[in-house]
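We were asked to recover a plausible sequence for a given structure. The inputs and outputs are reproduced exactly as logged, with field labels preserved.

PROBLEM: sequence recovery
POSITIONS: 473
GIVEN STRUCTURE:
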């Protein structure tokens, strides 16, 4: 275990007025928009036949045979090797958003039984033999996923009262993961927000995310636009909240020989709609003055589309953010005219993966639909249908990631060797991931060698995949 000293942090709760913004982003990140075997068998058979022949002609005495058998290595016994680990179980905490509280505040996520997603995924792992013979013992904490207050209460309960080994589920914003990974020596696996360098640097144990990192997302967006020939001759603006992301966009574009005519960095808080709209109006005015015809946006888009509408400014926009794909996307003044000019670049969506026969995704969905036919997950949900496919696949992926690391760590499972297991993971096959990998310097599981482009579909009245996925690796 690392000996790095902990530091006390104070994090304020997010005002309830910011709930729609926070949950919009939460929903978007988990939404469903699309957005040599024979040889091995022969060798095994040959070895078995050779062994049988040797046994039938052996002249060894019984005592010699007995002595040879006694030197055979036996599996290491399972012990209570660390907090939350017993001889036959591993206690894991699972953070579950409280749908009833969220609905009472006017937001219907349409996710159905989120706790059930995890129960079915864990059941599948048990049927596959558990984790080196141990089963997972889930301890659920249902909470309102806004700000830090409720998340921190759950963190203390799960790590100090329930003494779990690891935590799965929803932890947003990503800074809330530090209560687990920095202050309470507990790894996190699940749908945290996009990881930041600060969280990675401060974490004593890994915070593993099933969403792509900001850096990977932004690089993939530029690479996809270059592959499609969408950058040539454009007057480009880069827009976002984080200077580091804007720096990366400018650097990537410069390396390809493209100039940025406007860089705009948003500062008004999302929950202050008046201040936000006022700042966006000024930013759009600048784009008009600079004759911008392509905006690369790495922050939320809904309010921005409203500002474009107010200014009557028709400009193409490409973004890595998925808030614009939500059902309430027109709540801030944007119209279909603005939607048609937006492209969203991101991982290949869960619906597309299932329809294309991606094995881990298909198996995970089929299991869920078989065990929970009352909440069957549609590939591309229509109006009034559950938006739960992304969540179902995420649960399968997170459980499989944990099982992979814990298996590498070995029978004497500890936090130290769980962390060290990242050195040996590499590529993975995970539900909901076109391609995936993890390592000591890669805590976000998606590999964005192939991305999907979403655009507005007039007939569907929604964002849908445009063309085939684009290879950018």
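RECOVERED SEQUENCE:
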């Amino acid at each position: 275990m690392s000996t790095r000293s902990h530091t006390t942090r104070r994090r304020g709760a997010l005002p309830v007025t910011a709930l729609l913004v926070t949950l919009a982003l939460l929903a978007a990140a988990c939404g469903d928009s699309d957005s040599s075997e024979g040889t091995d068998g022969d060798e095994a058979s040959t070895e078995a036949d050779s062994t049988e022949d040797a046994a039938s002609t052996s002249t060894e005495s019984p005592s010699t045979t007995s002595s040879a058998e006694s030197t055979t290595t036996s599996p290491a016994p399972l012990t209570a090797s660390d907090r939350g680990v017993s001889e036959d179980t591993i206690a894991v905490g699972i953070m579950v958003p409280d749908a009833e509280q969220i609905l009472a505040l006017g937001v219907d996520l349409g996710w159905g039984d989120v706790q059930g997603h995890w129960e079915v995924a864990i059941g599948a792992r048990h049927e596959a033999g558990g984790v080196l013979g141990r089963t997972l013992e889930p301890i659920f904490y249902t909470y309102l996923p806004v700000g830090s207050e409720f998340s921190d209460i759950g963190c203390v309960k799960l790590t100090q009262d329930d003494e779990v080994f690891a935590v799965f589920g929803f932890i947003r914003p990503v800074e809330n993961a530090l209560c687990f990974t920095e202050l309470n020596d507990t790894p996190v696996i699940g749908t945290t927000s996009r990881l930041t360098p600060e969280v990675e640097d401060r974490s004593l144990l890994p915070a593993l995310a099933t969403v792509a990192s900001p850096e990977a997302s932004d690089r993939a967006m530029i690479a996809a636009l270059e592959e499609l020939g969408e950058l040539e001759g454009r007057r480009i603006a880069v827009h976002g909240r984080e200077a580091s992301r804007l720096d990366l966009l400018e650097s990537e574009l410069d390396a390809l020989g493209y100039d940025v005519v406007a860089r705009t960095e948003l500062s008004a808080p999302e929950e202050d709609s008046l201040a936000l709209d006022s700042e966006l109006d000024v930013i759009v005015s600048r784009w008009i003055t600079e004759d911008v015809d392509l905006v690369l946006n790495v922050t939320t888009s809904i309010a921005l589309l409203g500002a474009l509408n107010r200014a009557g400014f028709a400009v193409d926009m490409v973004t890595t953010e998925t808030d614009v794909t939500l059902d309430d996307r027109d709540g801030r003044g944007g119209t279909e005219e603005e939607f048609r000019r937006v492209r969203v670049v991101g991982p290949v969506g869960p619906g597309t993966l299932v329809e294309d026969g991606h094995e881990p995704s298909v198996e995970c969905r089929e299991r869920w639909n078989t065990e929970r036919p009352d909440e069957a997950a549609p590939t591309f949900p229509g109006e009034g249908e559950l938006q739960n496919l992304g969540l179902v696949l995420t649960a399968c992926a997170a459980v499989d990631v944990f099982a992979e690391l814990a298996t590498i760590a070995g029978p004497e499972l500890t936090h130290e060797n769980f962390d060290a297991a990242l050195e040996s993971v590499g590529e993975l096959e995970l539900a909901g991931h076109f391609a995936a990998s993890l390592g000591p310097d890669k805590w976000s599981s998606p590999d964005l060698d192939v991305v999907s482009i979403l655009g507005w579909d007039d007939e569907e009245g929604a964002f849908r995949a445009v063309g085939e996925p684009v290879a950018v690796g």
